[in-house]
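ok posting inputs for the 2-oxoadipic acid job
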Amino acid sequence: MSDFLSKSEIRARFCRAMSDMYRDEVPLYGDLMELVRDVNADVMDKNPELKARLEALDNLDRISEERHGAIRLGKPEELFTIRRLFAVMGMEPVGYYDLSVAGIPVHSTAFRPTDGEALKRSPFRVFTSLLRLELIEDDALRQEAEAILARRDIFTPRARALIEKSEADGGLDEADAATFITEALETFRWHSDATVSEATYQRLHDAHRLIADVVSFKGPHINHLTPRTLDIDAVQRLMPERGITPKAVIEGPPPRQCPILLRQTSFKALEEQIAFLGDAEDGRVAGRHTARFGEIEQRGVALKPKGRQLYDELLDAARGLAQPKADGSNTADYMRALREVFAPMPDSYAELRAQDLAYFHYFLTDKGRRAVGLEVSGDIATLVAEGYVGFDPIVYEDFLPVSAAGIFQSNLGDNAAHDRLVKSNRDVFESALGGPVADEFAMYQALEDASIAAVLAELAIVRAKAS
Ligand code: OOG
Ligand code: NI
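and the output
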């Protein structure tokens, strides 16, 4: 039997290959990566404590390697097969995001690794949306879009074959994995040749810009790749110095001592040359399309349901005071409202933990390791209080629907419609996917529980040695 390459290794290599491809396609992404690398190095120079913590958690290496991407699919079969493609790399669908509340005609999930070891090796994730064609009101146009999508296959025959092989055998060996990476990459590549005429593109575009982006091309080109920064405010401030224009407002929570969840900002989508189908057999008509952009993110601690509910309420309240405008004219007002409104969210890890608002990874302290022969209770809160056990934030690995809507909108033109759409349907999404999406809270809880179990087991060994 041949040796399989680990799914995490395939994912890490795929992530690097995708990053290289996107840097060639969108050079500004390369500039952004450089800026993020500089800022991250600077943050760690100035904050040796943070650096030590990241090192201790074995998380330092992943920072500069870390990124997420996004694609938009056109038909249920594409979602079904992309789930199988991502499974080859150890990525599973987590969470359901309904973007209809923001007037965006898609629903989405995030494919990502889920266990602790896999997340350490490469936390690469892909925000994956499925277009909701049923929202095209014009029957003829909807049928035309369906027919166009029915004709395309976004996966190469070899990618399909290797997905099947991996499913049948339980993995891929080195040579197959290399081929798989090359073939899978084809699905995400940019194609400047549209599959439709200019007139069709225009009609799709008039229904919604996103519909034109999904339906008019051969495949679901990766539309952004997002490196992780340790100081998003610094990157936002420095972008213009490097010739990059950021969107007006950083999405998510306000700046804090202890980052929570996720903050994100992007630069505007580029206007790119494309070629429409012409009337003549092989004729082409020059055109323009905007779709691909760059984004950065800063990740913080994952919140428990109670903390998340508080976050959602506070964000709603801030937006009630000031709706951030795309032209940046009220950014200062919005940021002020956000800061003020978020006061009830404690800004220390100890308090977030004490109030049961966030997830933590527990470990034995030096004192815990020396707890030989002491009368130590098994209750984690007491162990923490007495200094036997320490805790570190568990990083949020998922996305935020309001933020995602803001990222979509910043790249759909400033006057994109914000009307609410008919609520989308999770059952429809999951039946296309071929299974349920995982519950993000359950995953974080499992990570926290495992760390508590490990601490208690270690402590039991320490105490057994003593007696
Ligand atoms: C996805 C936008 C959402 C994020 O980071 O929240 C997203 C898209 O534009 O396709 O990537
Ligand atoms: Ni994104």
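notes: Residues 304-354 form one domain. The two ends are 47 Å apart (CA to CA).
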